[in-house]
Design brief:
By secondary structure, the chain is an alpha/beta fold. The protein contains 24 helices and 17 strands.
Length: 623
């Protein structure tokens, strides 16, 4: 087994040709077996096996720098740098990350998790290399899906001015998570058909160079002009028009061809883009047939590809999908927007029923938000469904284009709170803080599946910006008996007693209810309040509760800094309410990967610790 001989970086170079020939299949079998148990990103990794092998055959680690865009396709890179033993704990708490991590290995040059960043990061590493007088190679790998993100073009524009080597590998598998859309996708489709380009180019250049005394100068001039050699064969010549040499397309599953073109790229004295064609999910039929399903998967049956466990309860995303589709049947002004996440955000059903009112803008959250603002200004009712972690990228557009104009855009903030195995880059623990800071923004969060439906209907009808925040996973089915109408700015009083008031946000309902039970079992009275509205605060209720309660306990799955509890504390201070405030939330830090329940215990969002803290606080207050 060749894979067993790879115990550290650069060991791949010691393998014989025969061993290299079987290595790709070994890696695929290893990945399928391990990910079927742990879950993880399968399809993208299966498609990048030979590309990663070629990169490791042509680069020296850790001296050379390899940056993976998004980073979920770096599993083979981890294998080839001696981390095979970590795959049993992949994405588990305390185990190996599913993304590149500098603290995990010197061979991981840059932490990634969001798309369209690798060229910018690589360019920075190149300039640092030049300033420090070093001579290592820097390679940024970016997918064709990530090329729909505007940041990639900002970086390409900047990279075009380089006078030193910088290799950009375009890993083109026709996919991001959903199928790619837009002009760049059509452009790359055109390039994929130009399989003979490289051979033709070399032949023309070779002929010209043989002209005595003038050949090299003619080739140089042709490279600099927009009427150069490539213009004859490739429509648009987008990259070379920017001053970036284009090599390819090359078969991304042919290691020999990849090594040859990468070595050629290393000899270029400026930015060079290597266009590689790969197949997402290659080598495992279920992933080949349904790459979106196996983009990020839980444990599964290798034989069938079916999930190991199926939930009988709808997720919050599924509730959102069903209710929005129902709303749209009755209101033809409702439109839906996704940034390349139709399946993940539940908008695939909307697309099926209302294709003309569905918009996939590609991996471009910033554009999606301003596009939604334009739709709203034009008289439509846009709903932009986006993961909390990715919404961070559209903060300026939310503030400047949506809220400044007070436009009726609904932001469906999916995967809010702790999301688990994807780790620091994907935890949705900042949205309450950054959304609540924006004037004209309303922020709401449901306690269960029924309130989710009611809040979505409220948000679509509300003529101002609204962010509806909900978590990943099964929709809570408790507290069904509490279903007061959603009224703007009003909280929901579930139980009203005295002394201690527990005020929770959204999916903290079940935890808050258990906290209340623990407090009452200790002999204290306790009220339970569903905040519903994070912004605006229900200050009238806070005023009233302050007359009969001595301690407010806020519970939210968001960083405490700037979150709901901080707003309650600020108001209580300004209004001089005679209460003590205890804010329970996530500390001012990033939260690593792992099971959500384990992570909650680690950050202090577990019933036992909260009850202990509350009882200690109340004892001191009574003091």
């Amino acid at each position: 087994m060749a894979l067993e001989l790879i115990r550290k970086e650069n060991d791949i170079k010691k393998l014989s040709d025969e061993q290299l020939g079987g290595l790709a299949d070994e890696i695929r079998r290893f990945l399928i077996e391990k990910i079927s148990r742990t879950g993880g990103h399968l399809a993208s990794n299966l498609g990048a096996v030979e590309l990663t092998m070629a990169l490791h055959l042509t680069l020296d680690f850790p001296e050379d720098k390899l940056i993976w865009d998004v980073g979920h396709q770096s599993y083979t890179h981890k294998l080839l740098t001696g981390r095979s033993g970590g795959f049993d704990t992949l994405r588990k708490y305390g185990g190996m990350s599913g993304f590149p991590k500098r603290k995990e290995s010197d061979c991981d040059a840059f932490d990634t998790g969001h798309s369209s960043t690798s060229i910018s990061a690589g360019l920075g590493l190149v300039e640092a290399r030049e300033l420090l007088g070093q001579d290592h190679t820097v390679v940024s790998v970016i997918g064709d899906g990530s090329m729909t993100g505007g940041m990639a073009y900002e970086a390409l524009n900047n990279a075009s001015r380089l006078n030193s080597n910088f290799i950009i590998v375009l890993n083109d598998n026709h996919m991001s998570i959903s199928e790619n859309v837009g002009g760049i996708s059509r452009y790359l489709n055109g390039l994929r058909t130009t399989q003979t380009y490289t051979e033709i180019k070399k032949g023309v250049e070779g002929t010209l160079k043989r002209i005595p005394g003038k050949g090299d100068r003619i080739v140089s001039q042709l490279r600099k002009t927009k009427s150069g050699i490539k213009q004859l064969f490739v429509p648009g010549m987008f990259f070379e028009d920017m001053g970036i040499t284009y090599l390819g397309p090359v078969d991304g599953h042919d290691v020999r061809k990849l090594v040859k073109v990468l070595n050629e790229a290393k000899r270029v004295d400026h930015a060079v883009l290597v266009h590689v064609i790969t197949e997402k999910g290659k080598g495992y039929r279920p992933a080949e047939e349904n790459p979106s399903r196996f983009h990020g998967t839980g444990p599964f049956d290798i034989r069938t590809g079916e999930p190991a466990e199926k939930s009988a309860t709808d997720s919050y995303t599924e509730v959102f999908s069903k209710v929005l589709t129902d709303i749209a049947r009755k209101d033809d002004k409702v439109v839906a927007i996704t940034a390349a996440m139709a399946d993940g955000t539940g908008l695939a059903a909307f697309k099926k029923y209302f294709p003309k009112r569905f918009f996939d803008v590609g991996i471009a959250e910033e554009h999606a938000m301003t596009f939604a603002a334009g739709l709203a200004a034009g008289g439509m009712k846009p709903v932009f469904a986006v993961y909390s972690s990715f919404l961070q990228r559209a903060y300026d557009q939310t503030l400047h284009d949506v809220c400044l104009q007070d436009l009726p855009v609904v932001i469906a903030v999916d995967r809010a709170g702790l999301v688990g195995s994807d780790g620091e880059t994907h935890q949705g623990i900042f949205d309450l803080s950054f959304l609540s800071s924006i004037p004209n923004m309303t922020v709401i969060s449901p306690k269960n599946r029924w309130e989710m439906a009611d809040m979505l209907r409220f948000a679509v009808d509300y003529p101002h910006p609204v962010a509806l925040r909900y978590p990943r996973g099964e929709a809570y089915e408790g507290m069904k008996e509490f279903r007061a109408p959603v009224e703007y700015g009003k909280s929901e009083v579930l139980y009203e007693e005295a002394d201690i008031a527990v005020i929770f946000v959204g999916h903290m309902a079940e935890l808050a209810d258990r906290v209340r039970t623990g407090i009452r079992e200790a002999g204290y009275k306790c009220s339970l309040i569903n905040a519903r509205f994070v912004k605006p605060l229900d200050t009238q209720l806070l005023d009233r509760l302050s007359r009969t309660h001595r301690l407010f306990v806020t519970i939210e799955e968001n960083v405490v800094s700037g979150g709901f509890g901080g707003q309650v504390l600020e108001y209580a201070s300004e209004a001089k309410l005679p209460v003590y405030i205890r804010n329970i939330g996530i500390p001012d830090d990033y939260v690593e990967h792992g099971n959500v329940e384990i992570l909650r215990r680690e950050v202090g969002l577990d019933c036992g610790r909260i009850v202990e803290q509350v009882l200690r606080d109340y004892s001191e207050i009574k003091g």
